[in-house]
Design a protein that fits this description.
Helix content is 17%, strand content 37%. By secondary structure, it is of the alpha+beta class. It has a 16-stranded mixed β-sheet that branches. It holds the Pfam family FecR.
Amino acid sequence: MSDSDKPDDDVWDDLVERHLRGELNQREQEQLAGWLDSDASLREDFVRQATWDTELTEVVRSGGDRQSEMATLLAGKDDMQPRRTPAIMRALLAVAATTILALSYALVNQEAAPETIATDQSSGSVARITGLSGSLIWTGDRGELVRDIRVSTELAGGTIEGLSPDSWFELQFNDGSEVTTSGASMLTFSDDGQKRLRLREGRMSADVAPQPVGKPMVIQTRSATLTVLGTSFDVEAELPATAVSVREGTVRVTRTSDGKEIDVSANHRVVAAADQDFERRQIAGVIRNWESRIDQGPDETFGKWIAATETSPALLKAVAFVPEQNPNVVLYLLGLGVRSDEGAPIEVNEDSRFEIHGKIDVQTEIYFGIQVAYANGDFAGKFRAKCIVRRDNSGNFVARADLSDFGLDPSVAAYKDKLAPSPEGLFVNGVWSFTHSETPSGLRISEVALANPGNP
C-alpha cells in the first residue's frame, strides 16, 4: 500500500476505536479489513490498540490491586502503546486512574480478576477448526489476518470474527472441548495450560471437557466472567448484558459491576447486567411462538436500525453485503437474534410458519433464513426459503415462509452429512433476510414472527 492510500491518523484511530466498541457497519468493516489486509504497519498498530483496550478494561474492572499496571499504562512503554494514543483512550486512562484512587476498602480486598488473555504463537496449536461458514476473519496476536480459513486449520490462539448474521464457527481444543460462535460475533481464545476466552459480542455455545484442577476455563465478556470446570452452556454477550444458560453441570458467573457471584446449575439461566436483578432462574419449557422486538433497539441485529417516528414503526434496514464465497455478488442483508425473555428454547415443528412485515422499494424476491441448534446447543445447520410475498403499491409487504419451504443453505452444503436434514424439531437462535437485486432493494422490516397454528 502506498502512503497516499493509507488512512490519515484521525480516520484510522476512529475506525479502530469504533470497531473495538462493536459500532462499525458492514461497509466500515470491509474498509478496515482491506487496510489490514494490505498494510503490515496498520496490522501491528491494530493489535497494539486491541491489547491496550483489553488491558485498560481489566485494570478498570479489577480495581485497586492493579495500580501498578495502571502506572505502566500511563507511563506508556513503547512495546505496549499504540503508535498513536487517541483522545478517547487518553480520557479513559485519566478516568480509570481517578476511579482506582477512589475505590473503597471492600473493593480493594476483592479477589483479583482473571488475567488478560494472551496468545502465544510459539507454543504451537491449541485448537483446530472443525466447522465454519459465512464471512469470517481470524487475526493472530502478532497481526496476522487471514480471511481464507478452512476446516482442520490448526490455531495457536487469536481472535475470530463473524461478520454477518449467517456466520458460524466451530472450534475444538486439544482436550476435546468445543466452542461454537454464530452470527455477528468476536471471540478471542488462548490455552497456555488454562483456557481463556473473551467474547466481546455475539452468541457462543460450549461443551467443555473436565478441566485440570485449579485451572478452570475462564470466559470474559463486557459484563461478566464465567468460570467453567466442565459443562455445556450458552452465552449471549451484548454491550450492557450477558445471558448465560446452562444445559449440564455448573457455571460460576461473576457480575463485573459489583463482583457478585452466582453458581448456575443445569436448566437454569442468569443475566448479568448492572441495571437488572442478578438471580438464577429456571428455564421454562420450550416455546413455539415468538415475535421480534425491533422497536427496543439495535442490540443483536445486523443492518441499519431506524428509530420509530410518528408515522412509522422502528425498522431494520438491509445493508450491502458481499459473500466471501462469491465476491462478484452483492446482497442486501439484515439479521437478528432469536431468544425469549425467559430463556426458553424456541422450537420449530412441521406446522411452524414465519411471517415478515416490512417495506421494499423494488419488485424482487425476498429470501429468509434461520439458524438452528440441537437440544444440547450444538450447531445443527442453516436453512433458507424463498418467501411468498404480498406487496401493495406503496411497497409495504407481508412475506411468509412455511417450515416445509426451507432447504439447507448452500453455504453449509459441504457439511450436509454432519448437519440436520431439516429444521423440524430443532431450536432457532437467529434469522436473516436478504434480496439479490441489481440495485439497492431498500428492504427494511418492522417485525418477524414465528407462529405455530397447531400449538397457539
